[in-house]
């Protein structure tokens, strides 16, 4: 708490910049109309300013089809006649007013009357702070904060973000931990989270936290994916500075922060963006293009300049003012395809008769170019579930420009394979090996996310077949296989200690599950994370084919696979061998590239993880017996439902 310091410094405005008091210059308006004003949060919304010796709040809102707009709030009795706004004369559709004598912490909305007679009270699309739901007013707020994460930011700017280990812990703030007090169970605040989450992530060895959407959302059960307050962290957990403090403390603990970002849709709540000024301002007007049948929400109109810059300004806002390290873009497939989740006749083809939303494709490229231009040291991630080509290719080469993409195919194939009884796995061997056919067509993240442990799908541990010992052995094997597979890693909270219950957003994780089996899984994840960061072969060529080589790919009968992970120095190469049955494989011979001695540096069957302790010798000598296309080979014992990692030691 000692690091917190909130600074409120009114901005001094040159009153001669415009005949009416305004934060907008002529150049701002030119950029705005062209759709290239990427820092609109500095202009639109509500801002504490000083004008003619008086401190007050300047309000500005884009409502081009309104006949009248007024600011209403607790400062004027919510009277729609008290504080009318003035529309700018330049055709921008921006309404403005300066109200002296008010400051941060005022509750307000915009009372809008359209030319068609529609009247509505709207929250501020650019509000920095909102009332706690179910209340819906915006709140004037100064978001200055004294950061102490300079060392983290400096280091981030030096190193290329993809040239190191990326191990992501996905967190839902409302259910990671709950506080039990006299009134029952409540959310942890951002500051309470800041006291626990950074230390936990450090102990577990994760490099990043990915926060499911924190932006203000009216319905808690949407998990944050139905946003109304795009520029405000949810007030359920505290004020904006409290969220900044959480990010600051994660950075001090050397943990990066990834935000889930949702440009794919927004809810139809009356106080939100929908039908904002009596017209379909932010959304496509035709429901065949502007309404999601699955989510019952609106789709942004990506053809409109003001909408594109609203979203891009929002992305930069979180990077600029909240020091966010990466943005994970939700629902990219739903953005790209006009027929997403629609039947024939329920969608409008593009100008060439195709199913691609060409305006959305252009927007995603512009978003990625803007992010990388303003913040070359951060990265973007696409949750894209189809085979759209070039998602992580540069826009200059025709790609979408993302840095990483979720590898949904790997996730589905792998979980499907692991849910099968081991006796049947030999008939599905290709599900383990197929991902390497396309593993380097994009830069991938391997996700075991929240989507896989909800809606009756069961927790990860309960997906595993067999008795209790086999379930935990299978889970250890799954995690070990994931860390050996090329790509960044992502694990949803609770998976790291094998929570039995399916995730429920209204309840805390089951932290009471702390017996030796669960503790063994935690220890395994912690060790895998540290191995990932310590061994260059696991991250130096994580996203290209130079970093991988099959040794055993076709032993379906024994359900065994083996591969090399390769760094820049061949001496750092790691040999992985995995046995997907509960049968111990003795005297299993594996080809290796060098003569000499190899050391077993990891074994998922180790007793400390809850395994049966079927281990290899500290050092195993490679003999000149050709095997698997190599001149030398090792004779190993393969643990049941286990994975081992060996490293070349010496000759």
Key terms:
651 residues; alpha/beta; Immunoglobulin-like; TIM Barrel; 3 domains; eight-stranded parallel beta barrel; 32 strands; 23% helix; elongated
Description:
There is one protein chain. Helices cover 23% and strands 25% of the residues. The chain has 651 residues and is α/β, with parallel strands linked by helices. The chain has 3 domains: 11-139, Immunoglobulins (Immunoglobulin-like); 167-538, TIM Barrel; 545-650, Golgi alpha-mannosidase II (Immunoglobulin-like), CATH 2.60.40.1180. The strands form 8 sheets. It has an 8-stranded parallel β-barrel with strand order 11-14-17-20-21-22-23-24. The chain has a 6-stranded antiparallel β-sheet with strand order 25-26-27-32-29-30. A 5-stranded mixed β-sheet has the order 1-2-3-6-5, with no helix packed on it. A hairpin with a 2-residue loop joins strand 2 (45-51) and strand 3. The termini are far apart.
């Amino acid at each position: 708490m000692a690091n917190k310091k909130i600074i409120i410094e009114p901005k001094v405005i040159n009153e001669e910049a415009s005949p009416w008091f305004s934060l907008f210059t002529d150049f701002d308006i030119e950029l705005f109309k062209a759709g290239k004003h990427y820092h609109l949060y500095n202009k639109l919304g509500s801002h504490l300013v000083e004008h003619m010796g008086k401190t007050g709040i300047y309000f500005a809102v884009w409502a081009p089809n309104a006949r009248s707009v007024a600011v209403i709030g607790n400062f004027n009795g919510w009277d729609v006649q008290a504080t009318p706004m003035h529309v700018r004369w330049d055709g921008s559709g921006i309404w403005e007013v300066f109200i002296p004598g008010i400051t941060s912490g005022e509750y307000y909305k915009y009372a809008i009357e359209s030319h068609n007679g529609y009247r509505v009270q709207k929250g501020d699309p650019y509000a920095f702070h909102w009332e706690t739901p179910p209340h819906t007013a915006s709140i004037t707020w100064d978001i200055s904060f004294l950061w102490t994460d300079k060392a983290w930011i400096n280091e981030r700017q030096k190193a290329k973000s993809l040239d190191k280990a990326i191990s992501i812990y996905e967190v839902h703030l409302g259910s990671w931990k709950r506080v039990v007090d006299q009134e029952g169970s409540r959310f942890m605040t951002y500051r309470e989270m800041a006291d626990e989450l950074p230390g936990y992530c450090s102990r577990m060895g994760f490099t990043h936290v990915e926060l499911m959407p924190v932006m203000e959302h009216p319905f808690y059960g949407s998990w944050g994916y139905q946003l109304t307050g795009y520029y405000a962290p949810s007030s359920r957990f505290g004020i904006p500075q409290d969220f900044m403090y959480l990010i600051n403390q994660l950075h001090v603990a050397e943990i990066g922060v990834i935000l889930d970002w949702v440009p794919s849709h927004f809810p139809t709540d009356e106080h939100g963006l929908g039908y904002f000024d009596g017209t379909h301002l932010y959304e496509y007007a035709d429901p065949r293009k502007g309404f999601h049948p699955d989510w019952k929400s609106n789709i942004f109109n990506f053809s409109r300049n003001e909408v594109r810059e609203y979203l891009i300004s929002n992305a930069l806002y979180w990077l600029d003012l909240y020091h966010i390290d990466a943005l994970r873009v939700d629902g990219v497939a739903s953005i790209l395809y006009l027929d997403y989740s629609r039947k024939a006749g329920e969608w409008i083809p593009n100008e060439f008769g195709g199913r691609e939303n060409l305006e959305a494709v252009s927007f995603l490229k512009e978003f990625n170019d803007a992010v990388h231009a303003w913040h070359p040291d951060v990265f973007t991630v696409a949750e894209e579930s189809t085979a759209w080509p070039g998602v992580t290719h540069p826009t200059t080469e025709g790609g979408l420009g993302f840095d990483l993409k979720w590898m949904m195919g790997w996730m589905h194939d792998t979980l499907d394979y692991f849910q099968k009884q081991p006796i049947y796995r030999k008939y599905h061997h290709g599900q383990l090996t197929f991902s390497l056919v396309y593993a380097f067509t994009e830069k991938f993240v391997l996700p075991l996310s929240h989507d896989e442990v909800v809606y009756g799908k069961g927790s990860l541990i309960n997906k595993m077949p067999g008795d209790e010992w086999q379930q935990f052995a299978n889970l250890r094997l799954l995690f070990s296989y994931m860390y050996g597979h090329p790509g960044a890693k992502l694990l949803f909270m609770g998976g790291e200690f094998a929570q039995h219950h399916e995730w429920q957003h209204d309840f805390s994780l089951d932290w009471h599950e702390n017996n030796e089996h669960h503790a063994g899984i935690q220890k395994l994840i912690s060790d895998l994370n540290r191995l990932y960061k310590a061994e260059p072969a696991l991250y130096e060529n994580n996203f290209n084919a130079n970093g991988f080589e099959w040794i055993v790919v076709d032993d379906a009968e024994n359900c065994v696979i083996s591969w090399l992970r390769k760094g820049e120095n061949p001496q750092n190469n790691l040999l992985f061998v995995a046995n997907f049955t509960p049968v111990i494989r003795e005297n299993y011979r594996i080809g290796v590239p060098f003569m000499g001695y190899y050391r077993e540096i990891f074994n998922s069957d180790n007793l400390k993880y809850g395994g049966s302790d079927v281990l290899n010798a500290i050092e195993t000598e490679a003999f000149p017996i050709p095997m698997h296309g190599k001149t030398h080979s090792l004779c190993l014992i393969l643990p049941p439902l286990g994975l081992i990692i060996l490293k070349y030691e010496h000759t």
